[in-house]
Design goal:
About 10% of the residues lie in helices and about 50% in strands. It has two helices and ten strands; from the N terminus they run αβββββββββαβ. The chain has helices at about 5-20, 225-230, and strands spanning about 35-50, 60, 65-80, 85-90, 90-100, 125-145, 150-165, 185-200, 205-215, 235-249. Strands 1, 2, 3, 4, 5, 6, 7, 8, 9 and 10 form a ten-stranded antiparallel β-sheet that branches. The longest helix has 19 residues, at about 5-20. It starts with a helix and ends with a strand.
Length: about 250
């Protein structure tokens, strides 16, 4: 019987301790809104997954991730339940990828900055081509949120997005040095995670997300003369994008 007062004392202490960690909640009714709006700014890094052809005369590759992309989106969020939200985030996504072609038998490690000085007319030298992208972005995503902890709420997110590359060309131009032509439209599978933070006047979220293109972007049947070798070296190209987004809602 003597243990009962001791147990009650421990439970009382634990209750008081947990109450001390409970902080006043900002925006207590925010998650009960049926529909709310906001905007997103973010950084991105773009890449290509290249399926190379066998016995090709040149070897194509992408020089790492280039963390120079930028994006802006409008947030429209529909509450489905206490834990699920449907989000539509149309926007603009800008970025680029650096692609190189080289003779596998004579390849030597070079610095990325040295590629600007390469003369493509010299045999066995790598040749660099920068592919810029200006996407119109239309993601439709499902967001699953955990229980709210004070003013924080972790979540995972996933869904599909359609991106239309306004910078992609439909044919070769004599004034440009394009080596390949890629399709403009692509459907992406997206997945990521983040944390909602409830501030005094608005909700702020940090989110890391990956997008994987589902289409082969190579344009068939439009290559002539010198471009044939570069096109024949590639059987398929798929797009990848890594995004760090900051939502204000």
């Amino acid at each position: 019987m003597r243990k009962i007062p001791f147990i009650l004392l421990v439970l009382l202490f634990a209750t008081e301790s947990s109450a001390q960690f409970e902080k006043p909640r900002n925006l207590p009714s925010f998650d009960y809104k049926k529909l709310h709006w906001g905007f997103t700014v973010g950084l991105n890094s773009m890449d290509y997954a290249i399926k190379r052809a066998e016995n090709a005369s040149v070897y194509p590759d992408v020089i790492g991730f280039q963390p120079a992309g930028f994006q802006v989106n409008i947030v429209s969020d529909l509450r489905l339940s206490d834990y699920w939200n449907l989000r539509f985030l149309p926007g603009i996504n800008l970025g680029s990828r650096n692609m190189i072609y080289f003779d596998p038998g004579s390849w030597e490690a070079i610095n990325l900055n040295d590629l600007l000085d390469i003369d493509p007319s010299q045999d066995n030298d790598p040749y660099a081509s920068t592919i810029g992208s200006s996407y119109l972005d239309f993601p439709l995503l499902l967001k699953y949120r955990s229980e709210r902890i004070n003013n924080y709420r972790p979540y995972v997110i996933g869904g599909l997005s359609y991106r239309l590359d306004m910078s992609a060309k439909q044919s070769f131009s004599p004034d440009d040095d394009d080596l390949i032509i890629l399709k403009r439209g692509d459907v992406y599978l997206e997945a990521g995670f983040g944390i909602d933070q409830y501030l005094q006047y608005f909700k702020y979220s940090t989110e890391l997300k990956v997008a994987m293109g589902l289409r082969n972007l190579m344009q068939p049947g439009i290559y002539k003369n010198d471009n044939v070798a570069y096109a024949d070296a590639i059987e398929g190209v798929r797009s990848f994008i890594v995004m760090l987004n900051f939502h204000f809602e």
